[in-house]
Amino acid sequence: MSTAPVSFTDELRNLAGEQWERVVGHKFTIELAKGEIDRAVLKKYLIQDHRFLDAFVVLLASTIANARTLEDRIPGCQFLALLTGKENTYFERSFEVLGIGDANERSKVPDEAVTVRFVKLMREVANGGTLGEMLSVLVVAEWSYLSWGEKVLDFTSRDDFTTYEWVDLHSGEHFAGVVAYLRGLLDQEGTLLDEEGRDKCKDVFLRTVQLEEDFFDMTYSS
């Protein structure tokens, strides 16, 4: 009896091994869902995470532009609208509630080293990477968040929107559809790329997983 072939994205996740599990099971995600996260940790996370938005939008737009067909582009366009709409509104409302609503004051907070590295990777891949490399960054970012979002959903506290809405944005049928779309595109690229192209995707995928773990860890550093 033959077994189904492993998809390219599953292969990439398997390469990440225990580090992938550390990301999707990080204490940040558990404390956030339970509503027990220290507000200083949450503030630090949101300020730094919000600084990805522009680079992430550029990366997603580059991916859409480089997609192979119109059919491949349309779901990406819809996701782009979500990123620049509801999710961005979440940030602004959370900043106000957490007492950091003044953009000028937030701008005085320096970028963390991991934030700089993450933004640099997104912009480098958007400007000079292959479609496969662009998708590798996006798949890690969104698939890892779906993975932890679904994991914590059942015990998520509904007392504070700054915590539960972040979980809701990264779980559920719609977001799962976004991840399936991105994974599908990368799986397709995996069948079309030569060994060198696949190796580039593996390198970018693993670098992104490392950055995700470093970013969560950073929120607890003094």
Keywords:
222 residues, single chain, 79% helix, globular
Description of the structure:
- The protein has helices at 8-16, 18-24, 27-34, 39-50, 53-66, 70-97, 103-107, 113-128, 131-152, 161-169, 172-192, 195-218.
- The protein has 222 residues and is an all-alpha fold.
- Helix 6 (70-97) packs antiparallel against helix 10, helix 6 packs across helix 11 (172-192) and helix 8 runs antiparallel to helix 12.
- The longest helix has 28 residues, at 70-97.
- The relative contact order is 0.19.
Helix content: over 70%
The average pLDDT is 96
Q: What would the principal axes of the Cα set say about the shape?
A: globular
Give the H and E element order: HHHHHHHHHHHH
* Beta-strand content estimate: under 5%
Structural class label = mainly alpha
- Give Rg in angstroms: 17 Å
Q: Span between N and C termini? A: 55 Å
Largest sheet: none
Total strands: the figure is 0
Q: What's the number of helices?
A: 12
The low-confidence runs, each spanning 5 or more residues with pLDDT under 50, are: none
Write a brief structural summary.
The protein has helices at 8-16, 18-24, 27-34, 39-50, 53-66, 70-97, 103-107, 113-128, 131-152, 161-169, 172-192, 195-218. It is mostly helical and 222 residues long.
Topology:
Elements lengths: L7 H9 L1 H7 L2 H8 L4 H12 L2 H14 L3 H28 L5 H5 L5 H16 L2 H22 L8 H9 L2 H21 L2 H24 L4
Helix pairs in contact: 1-12, 2-12, 4-6, 5-6, 5-8, 5-9, 6-10, 6-11, 8-12, 9-11, 9-12
